[in-house]
Structures are given as C-alpha cells and as structure tokens.
Amino acid sequence: VNDSLLRELVPAVIGVLVRRGADFAAAEDAVQEALIRALGTWPDDPPRDPKAWLITVAWRKFLDAARAEASRRGRDHAIQREPPADPTLDADDTLWLYFLCAHPSLPQASAVALTLRAVGGLTTRQVAAAYLLPEATMAQRISRAKRRISGLPLDQPGDLGTVLRVLYLVFNEGYSGDVELAAEAIRLTRQLIALSGEPEIAGLLALMLLHHARRASRTGPAGRLVPLGEQNRSLWDTSMIAEGVTILQAALARDRLGEYQAQAAIAALHADAQRFSETDWGQIVEWYDELLLFTDSPIVWLNRAVAIGEADGARAGLAALAELNPELPRYAAVSAYLHEQAGDLEHAAELYAEASRAATSVPERDHLTREAARVRQLLRP
Amino acid sequence: MAKYLLLKHYRGAPASVNNVPMDQWTPEEFDAHVQYMRDFAARLQETGEFVDTLALVPDGAWVRYDGEGRPPVTDGPFAETKDLIAGWMIIDVESWDRAVQLAGELSAAPGAGGKTIHEWLEVRPLLTEPATILE
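Structure tokens for the assembled complex are given below, as produced in the milestone run.
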C-alpha cells in the first residue's frame, strides 16, 4: 500500500461524506474505519480506484453506524440507502477541514491530534505512537475534540493563524514512530498552499523545509544533539534549502511579512553560510527585531541575545541578555554559551551544569551536561 | 513474568564507588556512559524484557488539597530533601534474581576515568493483577 497516497485521499473522502449529509464526527469515524480496513486488505487485494473504494466502504460504515444509532434510540428512521450523486468537490472542502480541525475552541493538543487524523489520514494508533500516549487516551482525546466542534456554525471563515500554529506544532514536537511527523507537517502545509495563497503559509513551509534540510546533521552518535555551530554542513540537503529559499523569496516579495516568514528568513541566513564563521549575524539580528514585531516569545529574545553576541561580541550579547528575565527557560544555557565566548570559563561551566538541571528533554540535558564537562576539562591544568 | 522498577536517585542512595559528578567527567567519558545506557535498553528490548524508561527533572514541588473552594497548597522545591529520584526503568522479567542481575549490569555503567560507577540502584517489585485461579 502506498501509505501517503492513501492518506492524501482522506480529507476528500471525509468531504464527500459530509456533503452527502453525514455530520463531521460520524464521517470522520467512518473514514477512519475504512482506512484501517484499507491498510489490512489493500496489500493483498489492491483496488482499481482507491478513492472510490474508500468512499464506498466509508459510506457503508457510516450507514451501519447511523442505523445502529437509530435503532438504539428506538426510532425507525428511514436512512437513505442510495447515496445522492456527489456534488463536485472543490478545494474549499479540504480547506474547511483544516479550519475545523484546528478550531480555536479546541485545546492545541486536541487540534494537533484531530488534524493528523482527519486531514493527515493517520490512524489513532499512529497518532498515539507519535506522542508516546496509549491508544485509548488518544482515541478519547480525538472523540472529545470532535464533540466539542460538533454544532459549531460552519459557514464562518476559519482562523488561518490556528491552522498554521497546529502545523508548526506537528513539525516541531512529537517523536518518530512509523510516521515522521516533520515530513507529515511539510506534506500538510504543501497541501494547504494549494488551497490558499496567504504568504504566511509559504513562510511556514519555507521555515519547515529550511530546518528539515538540516536534520541529518542535528544528531550525532548515540543520539547526541549537535549544535548549529558544530554541524557538518555537507550533510545539509541543498536542494531542499534551495526550494525553501525560493518559496520564501516569493512570499517576501508580496510584502506582507509575518512571524513565519521572519523565522524562515533567519533559517535561510543560516542555511546560506558555507561555514558557521561565515554566518551573516548582523542581518540575523535585524530579522530577530522584525520577528519581535509579531511575537513576544522568550525564545526569540534569547536567540536574539545569542545573535547579538555573534554579531557584536560576547559582551554585547551578555548586555542584551541582562535585559531579560533570568527565570526564562533556557536563560542559563544562553548565558553559559555567552560566558564561554567571553572567556569566563569558570562561570560558563557552572551555568551549563545549572542549565542541564533545568533542561526539558533528555538530549538537551545530556548536551548541556556534556558542555559543562567540556568546559571543565578546558579549566584543568 | 513479573515487573520490576529499577530506580535511580539523584540523592538519597548510598554513595557510589566512583562518585564523581557528571559535569566533572571528560566529554568522552560522558559519551561512553550515554552509549552504555542506550545499549543496555536496546539489549532488553531485544530480549523482550524492556517496558519503559523515563527521566525526571530534579525540581518539582509538593502539592496538597487545602479544602473546598480553595486552591491547592504548594510548597518547595526543597533543595535539602534527602531522597530525590532521577528516573527509572521498568523491566518485565522471569524472576527477582534476573531483576537483580540486570540492575547490577545497569549499575556497571562507566563514569569518571572510564571506570565503573558502581551506582546503587533501588529494585522494587511492582504489584500485579491477581491471577484468575487463586486457590
């Protein structure tokens, strides 16, 4: 089974069922069941027309469920046996699905799960594995999310901001089970671009591509985290970088800047440097200033301090850092790096050790502990 | 099969033989340690004895109920709490002896100077579901 081809069909099939009169929650359940059956039967018995197969099976599943529901309620509703002819499907159906699954009334984790299932066509088991959760927990999260959005008026324009946020989270968080979430986020963002011309969608896609292009260099032996300055740049995917840059330039030319375009511009400047020492830190600082017009994220402020440290010297970086709240997550890690650059190794080693105690992931914790060990070794006579 | 928790402490366990804090090892010694832990978990996955492993952030807080309509009371973190759990591995093995054997291997991870840490790990049996036939 071509898994990604199969999954590309999912939003359209949900759209067909909804147009035939199923409510979203029931349509989505029915398509999910059809999908699981497809994964089981297609390897031995591939259908001639995969989409028609999915629609037929999903529609039958929907009818079965609706009949069971009707008889449970003791009512004798006549349920339409023959489906009406399908109205022409247009891109708006899929776009509507994106907006619905990332509806602002949903908690972010639920929006992510629902988007991966209904738009991405992943099974609940796959979504659960990606977030290291029991399948029953993920199933419950998805069904609660569907209950929450059922009954929402569907004629209102959706919120593109929450859709992009959800896709960003899919790219940025989660683990690798049998589905690579980063690649899935790229696929879903590409699909979204085909539906809407907003430059921020292109900005987000460029951002994803520019980071994804560096993935091979980001981890070393035993899963070790390799910081940007030490990455083997020959491992970077240059064609993916070129694609990201082209998409970004076209978006920027439309002169409607947003936070994803600004972040992508920073990523593009990193990708553009053959060596770490050739990085154009001056421009990167300028882009951080642009980015701060759209977000007040502490991570952006901290990264800006690092960039200033590279552009104007570690002392300038430390001065920028001194204006921030020391309680910020990763403050100690940034401070450690800048102190090391400034030649204050004693203090840097202590700060790296402090930062490792506050780290929020095992690779990050190990990296910071190792940095503390590295700097302490430099201090030994 | 029975499940056991192998508990690793930041503080509260008897001192290890090779008791040098991690940030005073060399980076290579640190890498060797991480590799040993990964290899250990991978080996247990192969033998079908691995269940789960998690690590904890040192800081947290004590929380308790403070009565109807009142927010919970929080207290801490207490830097001087005498026992502090760092993380755990859960294994599903044939016997207590096998659990002890594996804990011994985990405790043999290399540390400063490339020498075994001889870290004390706590091994605790997990309560199980009752069997169907009890009499």
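The two ends of chain B are 20 Å apart (CA to CA). Chain B has a mean pLDDT of 92. Further analysis is deferred to the final report.
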